[in-house]
Design goal:
Blueprint: H1 3-13, H2 19-47, H3 53-65
Length: 67
């Protein structure tokens, strides 16, 4: 089964899964997503893809003026 078929299978049968299993799947998925975000952040740091504090501050100030 390829990734698309697996996603479709999960989506089609998810309504049959009981709450304790849903809770467990949710916890595992969130942990995997958080781990992925951490790895991406570490890669950004290693590759020098950083934003200076001053540039971030200016960006936030620009957001405030958009309201």
């Amino acid at each position: 089964m390829n990734v698309i078929e697996k996603r479709d299978f999960i989506h089609n049968y998810l309504h049959r899964v009981k709450e304790p299993v849903i809770d467990e799947l949710y916890e595992k998925l969130m942990a995997l997503l958080n781990e992925s975000l951490l790895e991406e952040s570490e890669d950004d740091i290693k590759n020098g893809n950083l934003t200076t504090h001053e540039a971030f501050k200016q960006e936030v100030q620009a957001w405030r003026h958009m309201k």
